[in-house]
Amino acid sequence: MKLADILKNVECEFLKGSGDVEITDLVYDSRKVKEGSVFVCLKGYNVDAHKFAKNAVASGAAAIILSDPLELDCPAVVKVQDTRSALAEISANYYGHPARELISIAVTGTKGKTTTAAMIRSILESAGIKTGTIGTLGIIIGDNVYKTDNTTPESLIIQYYLRKMVDEGCKAFVVEASSLGLKWHRTDAIEFDYGIFTNFSNDHIGDSEHATMEEYLACKKILFKKCKLGLINKDSQVYNDIIADATCDIETFGFDPTCDVYASNGELTRRPGFLGVTFDINGYENYTVNAGVPGKFNIYNALAAISVCRHCGANKEAICKGLETVKVKGRVEPVQVSDRFTLLIDYAHNALSMENVLTTLRLYNPHRIVTMFGAGGNRPKIRRYEMGETSGKLSDLSVITEDNSRFEEVTDIINDIKVGIDKTNGKYVVVPNRKDAIRYCIENAEDGDIIVLAGKGHEDYQEIKGVKYHMDERELISEILAELS
């Protein structure tokens, strides 16, 4: 491939060389440069890759793409205004614009992105439309999960896996478009068929994220200048702000009867093996659906999924099946152990997320809520106090155990958790080993209990003394059940 091929539609200036240079690879990590690579100098919050440009040349780079001029002994040096924006277009050119071969869906909002993406995938695959997802849980194609560092990965990674999705027979993809992903141009060069807005609340404000709530909201709004149809939660307090500058067509969902798709008669539903919500869908059609995720707030996520999937060829049967069978790994994820009680795995690893989960589960009127949790090492102690106090107030029984202890002793972390829980009248036991703690929960479960294994969620490792050891709670549960049988 020629350098000129990947620079198509990119405003640039050749400081050295020409577009006739032959290239073999495209990278933004100087450690991955090999003979013939194009190295793109990205500027991050902590690191400016321009400082590694000479290393890239020494490793055989055929071209350097930069925004700050440098004297480099390289066959080609290309200046662009913004290397992140350029990388998105260059990556799409390099991989042949795979998004154009797929139904493309992006989901943005403070909460609900992961659940909504999982619902969309479940519905579309129930309709026979193989769908890949990119987000918090990694990149999922079929049964394979590829880990990523960010909810919305760098544009080069997105384009690489979109090409992989096409090659493996996918017909659609869903990406969680975080505010930072939009801000840092990671989804640029994709004109999405559908953009979804879930909700907006106070989050991600800080030096390395967004300076103000206004900037945070402005980054969310970017999506609706980069999609053909926007599907917006009309009940959101920022609805008018979201649509104000949108250049796409707009459809709405919510509980408001003026929405294009709206819900009514929402109820919590619990039966053996199922914890979720039931509601009536109104608007373009009228029928009842059961969504297999707990909490009435998940009706909004289901509405978002229904709103987009009806445009993608999913009929009533596929929508109903997809929502009833959906599982979101590590998000109040049910694991079938017994019809006598419900066992859930959840990522809640701070007091606020724990409060949200336990408050939601209390609405299902369980016999008891049993919460097993630990806390991360080398993190502020106040988090442990708060988690202990929250579980003590909202659980009938807390089982305190280990999490990612990192470089601290498990017993020290547990003692900090006890400081918080001792402020309450909550009952608790201490079982330091996590597998033993899960076994304790299962062996001592009572009819009608809801047991929450909190903290690990989708993670499949445990970090101890700087080493990450494989540990998946689903596997631990299987081992325990085999041992008990």
Polypeptide structure, described:
This protein is of the alpha/beta class and 485 residues long. It has 3 domains: 3-94, 3-Layer(aba) Sandwich (Udp-n-acetylmuramoylalanyl-d-glutamate--2,6- Diaminopimelate Ligase, Chain: A, domain 1), CATH 3.40.1390.10; 98-325, Mur-like, catalytic domain (UDP-N-acetylmuramoyl-L-alanine:D-glutamate ligase), CATH 3.40.1190; 333-484, Protein-Tyrosine Phosphatase, Chain A (Alpha-Beta Complex). 31% of the residues lie in helices and 25% in strands. The protein is built from 15 helices and 24 strands. It has an 11-stranded mixed β-sheet, sandwiched between helices. The chain has a 6-stranded mixed β-sheet with strand order 17-18-22-19-20-21, with helices on both faces. The chain has a 5-stranded mixed β-sheet with strand order 1-5-4-3-2. Helix 3 runs parallel beside helix 5 (155-167) and helix 11 (351-362) runs parallel beside helix 12 (381-394). The model has no long low-confidence stretch (mean pLDDT 96).
Reading off the top of the CATH hierarchy, the class of the largest domain is best stated as Alpha Beta
User: How are the strands of the largest sheet arranged?
Assistant: 9-8-7-10-6-11-12-13-14-15-16
Report the biggest beta sheet as strand number plus sense, adding barrel if it closes.
11 strands, mixed
Described by the principal axes of the CA atoms, the overall outline is globular
